[in-house]
Amino acid sequence: MSVNKEIKKVTTHTLQMMKESGEKISMLTAYDFSFARIVDGAGIDVILVGDSASNVMAGHETTLPITLDQMIYHAQSVIRGINRCLVVVDMPFGSYQSNSDIALASAIRIMKETGGHSVKMEGGREVADAIKRIVSAGIPVMGHLGLTPQSIYKFGTYTVRAREEAEAQKLREDAKILEEAGCFAIVLEKIPAKLAEEVSASLRIPTIGIGAGGQCDGQVLVMHDMLGINTEFKPRFLRQYLNIHELATQAVAGYIKDVKSGDFPSAAEQY
User: What was the pLDDT predicted at 1?
Assistant: First the structure.
């Protein structure tokens, strides 16, 4: 069996080197084997197995209902499809907030059962102790500040966060706390671009933006949004690169038409 020696795995160290050299980090979500293989094969740096699976895969209104077992299933599927990229697995709501013992146990399950490379947690100072314990166990952690969807019922809205100075200052402090706790990178979601630029410059570790402007060290989008699979979600920060919804609808309609007319299968498509 030939081994492809050209493939160089992306690691947390790679991302650190990218920040230091000024190379932007590309990150997309994926939730299954087939799309993970496509995204990784295209050369993505990081795949996030996002708890957004709750929305785009399961049809829930929020990310809250998805369970740890379900996240592990999605991550297992993604890992089978990748050769190169770094895989980050979201720790779902309820798997780390209550105490650091539960957080560590959840992170260990994700790493042991999925083969994933790291976990992601939402929140600042309030989750710092859990992050320290998880990092101390040898598990890399990506942080997440700004709009944290698992806290949607606290916010009451998906609007831009940290416009007011008090919340902006808390975000600055939380970013430093996460860095000191051992996070290897931080997602900044839906915050003013100027604040994201300031925070990115203040940290040694990379920042990954979503709706946080172009001065973060990398960018992330939900795959279903950028490929136009999901047509309901069109925020300002989303650039749609394809309209799979339209293309797939046309393809399915063509199949139905051919079946109904007797055109499919043709003589060449029979045994």
Answer: 45
189 is catalytic: yes
pLDDT of 219-239, one tens digit each? 999 999 999 999 888 899 999
Exactly one of 61, 180, 189, 269 is catalytic; which is it? 189
Within 10 angstroms of residue 193's Cβ, the number of other Cβ atoms is 16
Q: Which residues are within 8 A (CB) of 54 and not within 5 positions of it... i.e. 6 or more apart? A: 60, 62, 63, 64, 65, 66, 92
Q: What is the pLDDT of residue 152?
A: 85
C-alpha of 209 from chain center: 11
pLDDT for 7 equals 79
Query: Can you give the three-state secondary structure of the chain, one letter per residue?
Result: CCCCCCCCCCCHHHHHHHHHHCCCEEEEECCCHHHHHHHHHCCCCEEEECCCHHHHCCCCCCCCCCCHHHHHHHHHHHHCCCCCCEEEEECCCCCCCCCHHHHHHHHHHHHHHHCCCEEECCECHHHHHHHHHHHHCCCCEEEEEECCHHHHHHHCCCCCCCCCHHHHHHHHHHHHHHHHHCCCEEEEECCCHHHHHHHHHHCCCCEEEECCCCCCCEEEECHHHHCCCCCCCCCCCCCCCCCHHHHHHHHHHHHHHHHHHCCCCCHHHCC
Q: Mean per-residue pLDDT for 154-175?
A: 93
Looking at residue 157, its pLDDT comes to 80
CATH 3.20.20.60 domain locations along the chain: 12-240
pLDDT tens for 19-30 read 999 999 999 999
| Fold classification of 12-240 (topology level) | TIM Barrel (3.20.20)
Write down the pLDDT at residue 5.
Answer: 58
